[in-house]
């Protein structure tokens, strides 16, 4: 895997924040998505190694 540059890291963090906010908005509108979104988060963490999404969700879930 190639090294990630600072600009790429910033871009990925912005995508992560946007994805997190959209997932929480969907969860507010459609409560029945909770199980499916939890499976998606598990996939992001285990398959793609995106561990930061868990802390992002916890951070923003307190605001909703």
Your description of this structure?
- With 64 residues, the chain is mainly alpha-helical.
- It has one domain (6-61).
- It is built from 3 helices and no strands.
- The chain has helices at residues 6-29, 34-48, 52-61.
- Helix 1 (6-29) packs across helix 3 (52-61).
- The longest helix has 24 residues, at 6-29.
- The chain starts with 5 loop residues before the first helix and ends with a helix.
Low-confidence stretches: none
User: How many DSSP helices?
Assistant: 3
Element order, helices and strands? HHH
Helix content bin: over 70%
Shape: globular
Largest sheet: none
Residue fraction in strands: under 5%
The figure for the number of domains is 1
For the secondary structure, the number of strands is 0
CA(first)-CA(last) distance: 36 Å
Write a brief caption for the model.
The protein is mainly α and 64 residues long. It has 3 helices and no strands. Helix 1 packs across helix 3.
